[in-house]
Design brief:
This protein is an alpha/beta fold and about 475 residues long. It has 13 helices and 17 strands. The chain has three domains: about 60 residues, GMP Synthetase, Chain A, domain 3 (2-Layer Sandwich); about 200 residues, Ribonuclease Z/Hydroxyacylglutathione hydrolase-like (Metallo-beta-lactamase, Chain A, 4-Layer Sandwich); about 70 residues, Rossmann fold, CATH 3.40.50. The strands form four sheets. It has a six-stranded mixed beta sheet with strand order 7-8-9-10-11-12. Strands 13-14-15-16-17 form a five-stranded mixed beta sheet, with no helix packed on it. The longest helix is centred in the first third of the chain and has 27 residues. The protein is globular and about 80 Å long. The N and C termini lie far apart (about 60 Å).
């Protein structure tokens, strides 16, 4: 009976917030905006209009005003009835995208009204050019970087989204209504439960509970597990049916390895992570399935479960503030660990509490990444990764490690030997490659051929697809 009453209140809160948002928007905008529809696309409010230029002129002043009024993120879409044909739109794109950007492909999503524009150099495409495409065609342009070298992972993820566009938009609409519903209970308390990684290496999983929501931060495997690989999903505090969101720090298996298991057991909610993490996660989770099958073991999940997680993923950039549940806002900050790695900041209630969960962090600039962020305005609770954090865990500096590597390579080359470097494919391999190239450039070691294993090649291709996440120096 109590559950039925909650469900009724839940539905009532969804209807109420949708009505309030629409009324607030129409009371804010001028009459000549020609709005034809207001809907949710995940944690964003999508406004469909015949006159997008009215919203985006003067540096998007009207959009900012609407966002401030409704306290939600806003995107502008063109009215589908007024969009130009795909053929006409392609002609406009070819005319307005500069040749130096390296236009490669154009893909249309007639469900959302987005047109994906794949180019080699997105930084060569100006916002003025994108606005001109939008105003002329009413298709919302979205620029994607075409990998400079072929990446199977990037292609398969983009193909999956394009092939599942109706399923994807249905998911985003449901997510939007769920995120922006009115709270039913006051948020006066927060409970934090460790489901793994406490005093052990692996299966990182932290459950954050409020009267309104259950948020899982990371869902990792224990790499040395023997029947205890998974987080403690059987604890009474955890119920996959009550889970509202999963937030992932980075793509190593001790932080994502159990993620598809949640989908195998019925989870249908959102997963938040950065875009590079999505691509690396797919690659590593696939590899786990292949290795398990090759060793004659039953994998904990299938590729179908991996694809389910991909379709339910919502990617965010560093510093982007996003509602993920009533009275809970998420922001990612760089962690300096591997490509796309992030620290999680949860702002809960009306300033009730701020939680920072780091995952793995590195507070030093490297050849590959900028250092971890450390200027949080508020953080009442800090949950920090402490592997290699004891007094005896003294690691050499990057320069010292590079010199030692150079010494080993040089001595081996002088003996006409071959240097074999077993190294993790994600992050560490790219650092070693950069170190070797730098040593050759400085003539500290001779010019030698470098052979790499296939997975490292694919991971490096993902790195080249997202150079904006690499070190600025």
């Amino acid at each position: 009976m109590a559950k039925s009453l909650f469900q009724v209140k839940f539905l009532e809160s969804i209807v109420a917030v949708a009505r309030e948002i629409r009324e607030a928007i129409f009371s804010t905008v001028p009459r000549d905006t020609e709005i034809t529809k207001v809907d949710f696309e995940g944690p964003k409010v999508a406004i469909y209009t015949r006159r997008p230029q009215v919203f985006l002129e003067n540096d998007g002043e009207l959009v900012k005003k609407i966002a401030k009024t409704i306290k939600k993120r806003v995107i502008i879409r063109g009215d589908p009835e007024k969009r130009k044909s795909e053929k006409e739109t392609e002609e406009v794109i070819e005319k307005l995208i500069p040749e130096e950007a390296g236009l490669k492909n154009v893909y249309f999503n007639d469900i959302t009204g987005e047109v994906e524009i794949e180019v080699l150099f997105p930084e060569k495409v100006t916002q003025d050019a994108l606005n001109a495409i939008f105003f002329d065609t009413l298709w919302t342009p979205r620029v994607l970087r075409r990998p400079p070298v072929h990446s199977r992972t990037v292609k398969e993820i983009r193909d999956l989204y394009r092939a599942s566009k109706q399923e994807r938009i249905d998911f985003l609409k449901k997510l939007g209504y769920k995120v922006y519903r009115k709270p039913i209970f006051p948020t006066q308390m927060v409970r934090i439960v460790s489901l793994g990684a406490a005093r052990e290496v692996g299966r990182s999983a932290i459950l954050v509970q409020t009267p309104e929501a259950n948020i899982l931060m990371d869902a990792g495997l224990k790499p040395t597990g023997n029947g205890d690989e998974l987080p403690l999903f059987d604890l009474p505090e955890f119920d996959v049916d009550d889970l509202d969101a999963v937030v992932i720090t980075h793509a190593h298996l001790d932080h994502i390895g159990a993620l598809p298991v949640l989908f195998k057991h019925g989870y249908k909610g959102p997963v938040y992570m950065t875009e590079p993490t999505l691509h690396l996660a797919k690659l590593l989770l696939e590899d786990y399935v292949k290795v398990s099958e090759r060793e004659g073991k039953d994998p904990l999940y299938s590729m179908r479960d991996v694809n389910s997680f991909i379709l339910n993923t919502y990617t965010l950039t560093y510093g982007e503030v996003t509602d993920i549940a009533p009275e809970i806002r998420l922001t990612f900050y760089r962690a300096g660990h591997i490509l796309g790695s992030a620290m999680i900041h949860l702002h809960i209630g009306d300033g009730l509490i701020n939680i920072v969960y780091t995952g793995d962090v590195k507070y030093a600039r490297t050849m590959l990444l900028d250092p971890a962020y450390n200027k949080f305005p508020r953080a009442e609770v800090l949950i920090i990764e402490s592997t290699y954090g004891s007094k005896t865990d003294i690691l050499p500096s990057e320069d010292d490690a590079k010199l030692e590597l150079g010494k080993i390579v040089l001595e081996t080359a002088q003996r006409n030997g071959i240097v074999l470097i077993p190294v993790l494919a994600v992050g560490r391999a790219q650092e070693v490659l950069l170190a070797l190239l730098d040593l050759m450039k400085k003539q500290a070691i001779p010019q030698l051929p470098i052979f790499i294993e296939g997975m490292i090649d694919e991971v490096s291709a993902v790195h080249m697809t997202f150079p904006e996440y690499l070190s600025a120096t």
